[in-house]
Design brief:
Strand content: 15-25%
Distance between the termini: 22 Å
Largest sheet: 8 strands, parallel, barrel
Shape: globular
Oligomer: single chain
Radius of gyration: 20 Å
Strand order of the largest sheet: 1-2-3-4-7-8-9-14
Helix content: 40-55%
Number of helices: 12
Length: 367
């Protein structure tokens, strides 16, 4: 594991807050170009998101893996719609076919309405309780060398077993890496028990320090340690002034499109992560060195919607502040998705890696 990991995000068509979706829901040529651009830009992994009306993320990962060679994937997955025994075999199979490049990000769900589209009527806290049991079964299927029975509040199996195991289990890892999101009181114990990497949205440094501390405390109860990921939407330009001009233009276009599409200012639904982003935005739309919360405020804190604004050097320095808190993974994606991914690879990713290496070398020398 390197000292820093960069994750991007690919979708099945061009779409963002400033680019309305057009044409078919799946643009195969765009997915291929998008995945290959991330690989060439030096990303370690890409997220394929999940939504209750979107193309299937598992199949999108399978296609993207078939047109790339080195880049790893983070499949967004909602527990509850597929039995954990079947999901374990699907993920193990995908890990085998992709050459051991799969990770899975488990999202229990922060919107009742979103869940109900797929027939899930559990409430917010019940969903996290189900995820806890789901991950317990999933990990057991991956690691068990003989059939087992399971009986719990949400699942009951007899002689559960999988002939296929993750490829990564042959290389020192017990299973496909577990990424986990959720900031509520119901979520944090599940994170401490199961997460290899805990993912939080682009909060302020103070918020990130508080939340990662709580997750570490939960993990310690199980004798575990957890790595951390933070998500941002970097807005870069050759000067700070031009970067802020670009940010203002992005906000104006976001607002214009939301009016055209008939959307009002969004709310956080049942998501604690979204509520935390909105709480930060209420303090100021500019926080710390260059954290910008205006788009998050406009869309209700949905998804990773806070930005770091500045030159590549300035944004790299801001990322290092989070690295000092123990964050080793950064999920970065742009408002111009493909073009920004390419741009990040030119300067932001290599400069951040260089600075992390320099800082760690200095710390080792001083020790």
């Amino acid at each position: 594991m390197s000292d820093i990991e960069f994750i991007g995000m690919i979708q099945a068509q061009k779409v963002s807050e400033i680019h309305p979706a057009r044409g078919p829901a799946i643009d195969r040529d765009y997915v291929r170009a998008f995945a290959q651009a991330h690989e060439q830009a030096g990303f370690d992994r890409v997220l394929v998101p999940h939504h209750s009306t979107s193309p299937d993320a598992t199949l999108t990962v399978a296609y993207a893996a078939s047109v790339t060679e080195r880049i790893h994937f983070m499949l967004a997955h909602r527990p509850g719609f597929v039995a954990p025994t079947l999901a374990a075999r699907q993920f193990a199979s995908l890990d085998q076919f992709s050459g051991g490049r799969l990770g899975v990000h488990y999202i229990s769900g922060g919107s009742d309405d979103e869940q109900k589209r797929d027939g899930d009527w559990l409430d917010h806290d019940q969903r996290y309780a189900r995820t806890d049991e789901y991950l317990e079964v999933l990990r057991k299927v991956w690691t068990s060398d003989k059939p087992f029975d399971h009986e719990g509040p949400h699942y009951r199996f007899k002689d559960a077993f999988s002939e296929v195991k993750p490829l990564q289990s042959q290389h020192g890892k017990p299973h496909v890496p577990i990424y986990f999101g959720g900031a509520s009181e119901a979520a944090l114990p599940v994170a401490g028990k199961h997460a290899d990497v805990y993912a939080l949205w682009g909060e302020s440094l103070d918020q990130a320090r508080e939340l990662t501390g709580r997750v570490r405390a939960e993990a310690a109860k199980h004798g575990r340690s957890v790595r951390f990921s933070v998500s941002f939407r970097p807005i870069l330009a050759e000067t700070e002034e031009k970067a802020w001009e670009r940010a203002d233009a992005i906000l104006a276009e976001t607002r214009r499109l939301r009016v055209v599409q008939g959307f009002g200012r969004g709310g956080p639904q049942q998501s604690e992560g979204a509520r935390r982003l909105l709480a930060a935005a209420e303090k100021d739309t500019r926080l710390d060195k260059r954290l910008w919360t205006a788009v998050a405020q406009e869309i209700g804190g949905r998804s990773n919607s806070t930005a770091l604004v500045g030159t590549p050097d300035q944004v790299a320095e801001a990322l290092l502040d989070y690295h000092e808190l123990g964050v080793t993974t950064f999920l970065i994606r742009g408002f111009d998705p493909l073009e920004d991914a390419i741009d990040y690879g030119r300067e932001l990713i290599p400069r951040t890696r260089e600075r992390v290496a320099e800082r760690l070398a200095a710390q080792r020398k001083a020790a």
